[in-house]
Design brief:
CATH superfamily of the largest domain in chain A: NADH-ubiquinone oxidoreductase 51kDa subunit
CATH topology of the largest domain in chain B: Glutaredoxin
Radius of gyration of chain A: 26 Å
Number of helices of chain A: 24
Largest interface: A-B, 63 and 48 residues
Radius of gyration of chain B: 18 Å
Number of strands of chain A: 19
Strand order of the largest sheet of chain B: 2-1-3-4
CATH architecture of the largest domain in chain A: 3-Layer(aba) Sandwich
Number of domains of chain A: 5
CATH class of the largest domain in chain A: Alpha Beta
Helix content of chain B: 40-55%
Helix content of chain A: 25-40%
Number of helices of chain B: 7
Largest sheet of chain B: 4 strands, mixed
CATH class of the largest domain in chain B: Alpha Beta
Oligomer: heterodimer
Strand content of chain B: 5-15%
Strand content of chain A: 5-15%
Shape of chain B: elongated
Structural class of chain A: alpha/beta
Distance between the termini of chain A: 68 Å
CATH superfamily of the largest domain in chain B: Glutaredoxin
Order of helices and strands of chain B: HHHHEHHEEEH
CATH topology of the largest domain in chain A: Rossmann fold
Shape of chain A: globular
Number of domains of chain B: 2
């Protein structure tokens, strides 16, 4: 249990203590405990590390209260480092070394060689193109990045408020509580040009000012949208898991600025770790009196609640989210009134995305001009992206707005996997579009992307290689939207279903040439007449693939051919004479459709074949052809 | 009160209701806790909750069926959430799904296996895209899956059960 801080002086005293304790840790071992590395077994590694340290008589946990200036080693569970492809990761400070693909069996060596001996273990280092990179910051994946929102993600213990305070946490809040007026805070945020990171890019300062303007309302709400539903996006998740206090601080500042005293964080049900880290963070902040009544004796109050989503994509839409928090079906409503006027429980509500709130503390601390030093004129600052798909280095990245796609895919992402050719990037999830080779040098910011029919969206970047079928991709997103359409308005409910049916028949080989026009006209109708953002943007993946890859649609319809062999309805698998009779295909076939004896050519029973392509993927000699 | 309620541990439901002050705006949280306990939402419990929070059964049913995470049917001991998000899709999660259906004798129409061990669910994105394709078993994420690993996973879970 922590002692409650009643004044600004007490906060400053704690901060001094935290900084001193932080400095006393001459060496730190940061075990990545983001979802990816935890799946790779890093929790077990963390426990083993503590055991091994104890066995060597090394102190690894430092209490703030007996800070006698003695040095210590800190063993910490950190948030996501972002380089998920190379996980499980362990970072060693002060050198800044990064160990990749770590296993529990490596712990003994890490303790003996690195912690005691100060020696780098080459075996665990990152190697690219024959070169060994010891320091995390030197690795090409990190070098091109500028981490602001994710600055401390992976570098601090995500479950310790003291650690957050030691790196300057909550000083922005203190400034807002004691030095700035609400108008001054909003002015600073407006001057910074920060735009909503949830996708639409609405100016944050403007939104806050609209909520603050409702001076007649005693009750207003701050809502944090952590319902990161876009498939292929996990920036907000990493932020909530790796640096939860930063999100809380941004929300409390928004509360102080707009005169709201209640905050809600709506987190996806699929993110149990984010929920648990935020719960810990809220509890710690409440203990210290940073959340609750009369924060640090300032006379201002703020209370925080967590709502877990229950599996509905549409709840990422503002009015659907507030309906869900109120305990209703998460359906959007017509606007106006907008949520800044009548939002949660019918009160003025400031609803921002996780990343937006996480940008706020630094803007207050370092100023609007600092924030504008990166990014473009109309889209200042940085943006976090989830880089996934057929790219060498998948993971979480943060780059200045306006960085080109080429830099992201080739320099940070390390190019396409398995030496394949780049085909497209799907950006912005089911509301977004695809960018092709001709867009590689396009700066990625809100306005440039809008011009080519794509959006930044929440920031999912799924890289596709030459083997990815674009018709299949469009079908995939349309299936998703049909599942997730709440059904309230007809254009979205019926229109997307019709589009899905058309795409289904095209990929099954029953398409008609008139289908292309039909898709376009349905898309237009859905865009203009849907009730909410989900419907209005639902046709984007189809329109964008039609715009860039219409020839593939034509091929599917006219030639009944999928050049990538992805559309199973069009594929036929045949085993050629190259077959060496290794039986691997037969063993891997999920429906036992392949027969043949050892060292003899195998045969596929086409009546049983489900055209999954597993045989082709597994064949060691490339004997299986689609024809 | 109807007799079916005899089969239900009302103490637990009451403790959940008390935790959320029988507040109808927190009905989603109430149902989440209840589902965690029973692994699904038993009909008689829903009827009881509706009465206690002063909400019509129809409205409560509407909320329960709107959200994908709520289930009105019993689920298997192991709930396998197969991610069909974009990143997993690009890395062939459909083959993993097919292998899991085959290994457990389940299908889209019949997601829970006859032995009550497995429920296969399709989820849109687990947010672990860097590790695609992924399958989440209860709360553990299994990374970089393929049909072979999927079959091994089922065999291993069968042994554990």
């Amino acid at each position: 249990m922590r002692n409650k801080l009643n004044t600004l002086e007490e906060f400053r005293a704690l901060q001094t203590k935290c900084i001193a304790a932080h400095k006393a840790e001459t060496r730190k071992v940061l075990v990545c405990c983001g979802t990816g590395c935890m799946a790779g077994g890093n929790l077990a590694l963390y426990e083993e590390l503590k055991k091994e340290m104890a066995a060597h008589g090394l102190p690894y946990e430092l209490s703030l209260n007996d800070n006698t200036g003695s040095s210590s080693v800190g063993v910490k569970k950190s948030g996501c480092h972002g380089f998920c492809e190379m996980g499980p990761l362990v970072r060693i400070e002060p050198e800044g070394w990064l160990y990749t693909k770590c296993k529990v069996s490596d712990v003994k060596e890490i303790v003996e060689k690195t912690i005691i001996g100060g020696e780098f273990i080459e075996r665990l280092g990152y190697v690219r193109d024959g070169a060994l990179y010891k320091r995390q910051e030197d690795i090409p994946f990190y070098k091109k990045q500028t981490r602001r929102v994710l600055e401390h993600c992976g570098h601090i213990d995500a479950e310790s408020i003291e650690e957050y305070i030691s790196i300057g946490g909550y000083t922005a809040l203190a400034k807002c509580l004691f030095e700035l007026s609400g108008e001054q805070i909003i002015q600073e945020v407006s001057d910074s040009g920060l735009r909503g990171r949830g996708g639409a890019g609405f100016p944050t300062g403007k939104k806050w000012a609209q909520v603050a303007a409702h001076t007649e309302e005693p009750i207003k709400y701050i809502v944090c949208n952590g319902d990161e539903g876009d498939p292929g996006a996990f920036m907000d998740r990493s932020c909530m898991e790796g640096d939860p206090h930063k999100v809380l601080e941004g929300m409390i500042i928004a509360g102080v600025a707009t005169g709201s005293t209640e905050g809600y964080i709506y987190v996806r049900a699929e993110y149990p770790l984010a929920v648990s880290r935020l719960t810990i963070a809220i509890q710690q902040a409440e203990e210290l009196g940073i959340l609750g009544d009369n924060i640090l004796g300032s006379g201002k109050s703020f209370h925080m609640h967590i709502n877990r989503g229950a599996g509905a994509f549409v709840c990422g839409e503002g009015s659907a989210m507030t309906a869900s928090i109120e305990g209703h079906r998460g359906m959007p409503r017509t606007k106006p009134p907008r949520s800044v006027d009548k939002g949660l429980f019918g009160k003025p509500t400031c609803l921002n995305n996780v990343e937006t709130f996480a940008n706020v503390p630094d803007i207050i601390k370092k100023g609007a001009a600092w924030f504008r030093s990166l990014g473009t004129e109309s889209s200042p600052g940085t943006k976090a992206f989830a880089l996934t798909g057929n790219v060498m280095n998948t993971g979480l990245i943060e780059v200045p707005m306006g960085t080109t796609l080429r830099e992201v895919v080739y320099e940070i992402g390390g190019g396409i996997k398995n030496g394949k050719k780049f085909k497209a990037v799907q950006i912005g999830g089911p509301s977004g579009g695809c960018l092709t080779e001709e867009h590689l040098d396009l700066p990625m910011d809100f306005d440039s992307l809008k011009k080519v029919g794509a959006i930044i969206g929440s920031g999912g970047l799924v890289v596709m290689d030459e083997d990815s079928c674009m018709v299949n991709m469009a079908q995939f997103f349309m299936n998703f939207i049909c599942e997730e359409s709440c059904g309230k308005c007809t254009p979205c409910r019926e229109g997307t279903t019709r589009m899905k049916e058309i795409l289904n028949r095209i990929t099954e080989g029953n398409g008609r040439m008139s289908d292309i026009e039909e898709l376009k006209s349905l898309a237009k109708m859905i865009q203009v007449s849907s009730l909410c953002g989900l419907g209005k943007t639902a046709p984007n993946p189809v329109l964008s693939t039609l715009l860039n890859f219409e020839d593939e649609y034509v091929e599917h319809i006219r030639d009944k051919r999928c050049r990538c062999g992805v559309c199973k309805g069009l594929a036929k698998y045949v085993i050629t004479d190259k077959c060496i009779g290794c039986t691997k295909c037969a063993r891997n076939c999920p429906v036992n459709a392949i027969t043949g004896s050892v060292r003899h050519k195998h045969v596929i029973d086409t009546t049983r074949c489900i055209k999954c392509g597993t045989c082709k993927d597994n064949c060691p000699v490339g004997a299986i052809k689609e024809g | 009160m109807r007799s079916i309620l005899q089969n239900v541990d009302l103490d637990f439901v009451n403790s959940v209701l008390d935790k959320y002050d029988r507040d109808s705006t927190r009905i989603i949280a109430i149902m989440q806790d209840v589902q965690e306990h029973y692994r699904y939402l038993p009909r008689e419990v829903l009827e009881y909750i509706a009465k206690e929070v002063h909400m019509s059964e129809a409205k409560l049913y509407g909320v329960a069926t709107f959200y994908g995470n709520f289930s009105l049917d019993t689920k298997g001991k192991y709930v396998l959430k197969v991610c069909r998000g974009t990143a997993c899709h690009v890395r062939k999660s459909s083959n993993v799904l097919a292998a899991l259906y085959e290994a457990t004798g389940t299908s889209v129409q019949k997601p829970t296996s006859d032995d009550g061990l497995f429920s296969i669910e399709i989820v849109s994105c687990l947010g672990a895209c860097g590790l695609s394709p992924v399958v989440m078993v209860n709360d553990t994420v299994h990374a970089a899956m393929n049909p072979d690993k999927a079959r091994e996973l089922i065999a291993q879970l069968r042994e554990e059960a």
